[in-house]
Amino acid sequence: LAATQPSTNWHLKENAKEHHTSKFSSEELIVRRGQTFTITFNGTEKPEQNLIFLAETGPKPSKATKTLATFGISSTVSKEGWSAVLQSTSSNSVSISISSPHNAVIGRYKLSVQTGSSSPSSLGTFVLLFNPWSSGDDVFMPNKAECEEYVLEEFGIIFAGNKNHISGFGWNFGQFQGDILDICLSIMDRSLYYRQDPVTDVSHRHDPRYLGRVLSAMVNANDDQGVVLGNWSGKYEGGKNPSSWTGSGEILQSWKKSGFKPVKYGQCWVFAAVLTTVLRCLGIPTRTITNFSSAHDADGNLRVDEFYDADGNHLERGADSIWNFHVWNESWFTRNDLGPSYSGWQVLDATPQEESGGIYQCGPASRYAIKEGDVDLDYDCPFVFAEVNADCMYWNYDSATGKKTLIFSKSTEIGDSISTKAVGRDDRVDVTSDYKYEEGSAKERDVFKKARKKLGLEDKFDPTAPTQEEIEQKPDISGKFKVAGSLEIGKDLNLLLVLENLQSDAKTVNVNMTAWSTLYTRRRVNEIWKDSISVTLAPKEEKQFPIKIKYPEYQQQLTTDKTIQVTAICHVEDGIQVLVQRNITLDNPAIDIQVLGEAKVNKEVVVEVEFTNPINTEVKDCVLQVEGCDLLQGILELRIPPLKANEKSSTKFKLVPSEAGPKHLLVNFSCDKFADIKTFKMVNVIN
């Protein structure tokens, strides 16, 4: 007689609680490696007979690649491999506690059992994940509050703006929602590594270092039809403006629904947020990091060259650039390949900036290696080191003659206010000192020299570098732009150009000024304003020149990044030129969320969103988007009637929270004059 198919009780609730996987809404067992889970099954005639279990994963399971394990009943849990311990038996069922090794391959497994010489019967499938709660795991994180934040928290804050004016917006990571886990597993199976050699790829999936690198490549669409297509043109036809997303769920779902076609469009924070979702989902502790004044050193010389013409226009010459901010990831795991001091936070970057090993992937680069200038260590340390440390050279370029003249150089410009969200609170934490020694300190310069030496830059003559004489030249005047008044869209922009004569004789200065709308990467898009003045400064005199750029002048030209670069090139008679520059990020008007009444599980609660049109023309095409894990399913989109000048709108909608605890509601309001006004509200849901 053929053996009947055993029926399996996976004890989903109990196992999920033990394994910190209760937040997944799955009918399938999801557990973490290196920890026991219990199952009960029947259909084996004599359970006390020799039961042999098979756990297998990947396309060609084998013991050699550690993708197949066969194990019998033992009296204790094995420290090394898979094991099964008998818990209890009854006349027709048996309860078994199964454990996997700390370094097991993660992914979906098929579990079967055989008795005696009969062929194996399938018990079903389960998913095995990384285990940051277990001390033997490469991703072990001793601090439980950090595990909660970096693995289980579905809400995050991403910092943006610029170093003078940091702002943060909420993001819904949503790693436990719907079929996100299945999508994450299919991301791994669509990578170039898997396509070239599926067996080897799956056998490496025990290693967070390997998976972090593979997934940094798969989150961008370059090379492999990955998840998100980048677009830094300022024109987003045929897709969504990168600023309009509020969570990763919609992006990952769109990728799957379209038959795995890249989702349009992303910029750095979108790549970083999606990678956070995928890695947290798989159990690797991960966070987003924002670096202000971030260098993109395309030619690997730890120097970024910026060019300006005589009128003060920023020129697109050379591949180097400085971004107002750049967002990447840090994931937490050990670096057995480098040694204990390099373990801990590792930098991964899914934004496609430079190729590494022939494809657009970046990291893991040990954060400790970056701080110590150990740029020869795997992976991509020189690129990350430059992002936070590169020296800046500002040149004047004459297109008629091709001549370039150094205006000035700065070694303290790059890598400012490196930021991440605090553990357990909605605040910003500055982690700059984890990336580098204090700017301007002797130790910081020593590390920079060490990095240059390791890259062979110290001994090699660089014809593009400025001479020592050029670097040491001293200007006769100094200048800066000061903001006078508010930086709100809809209001006039008031600035002061402050010039000071540093010498004891009078100076005549011709100043050419421009203001351009830019992307957050400082790429120029539209000219907004230009002017020139001639000034005489008495010895040691300081003068202020007011500049007003009216709202109607900049409104049409502004990009959705809301950034303006103001530049003044000061031509000093018989002296060297001085460049004065400021990158300004404007603020959107405020939007207000009120929860009317108490938020209780499975009970309706009304939320009111208020917005006042701050300008004296009508705004139309108003749309409100709302999302939030455990507060509502998917994304709610509400159309709002046009608003007259200075009119206030109030929109009400209902939520039915599904789980107790502190939850975050994210709101995004857009209209024809203001794009993507984002805010979030913490809602405390009670049972």
UniProtKB/TrEMBL annotation:
Q: What is its EC number?
A: 2.3.2.13
Q: Where does Ca(2+) bind?
A: 389, 391, 439, 444
The cofactor required is: Ca(2+)
| Keywords on record | Acyltransferase, Calcium, Metal-binding, Transferase
Question: What domain of life does the native source organism fall in?
Answer: Eukaryota
**Cofactor stoichiometry and binding remark:** Binds 1 Ca(2+) ion per subunit.
PROSITE patterns the record matches: TRANSGLUTAMINASES
Q: Tell me yes or no: is Transferase among this UniProt entry's keywords.
A: yes
What residues sit in the active site?
Answer: 268, 326, 349
Recorded catalytic activity of this chain's protein: L-glutaminyl-[protein] + L-lysyl-[protein] = [protein]-L-lysyl-N(6)-5-L-glutamyl-[protein] + NH4(+)
Q: List each copy of the Transglutaminase-like domain by range.
A: 260-352
Q: What class of enzyme is it?
A: transferase
InterPro entries from the xrefs?
Ig-like_fold, Ig_E-set, Papain-like_cys_pep_sf, Transglutaminase, Transglutaminase-like, Transglutaminase-like_sf, Transglutaminase_animal, Transglutaminase_AS
Which GO molecular function terms does the record list? metal ion binding; protein-glutamine gamma-glutamyltransferase activity
Q: Which family is this sequence assigned to?
A: Belongs to the transglutaminase superfamily. Transglutaminase family.
Please give the name of this protein.
Answer: protein-glutamine gamma-glutamyltransferase
Source gene? Answer: Tgm3_0
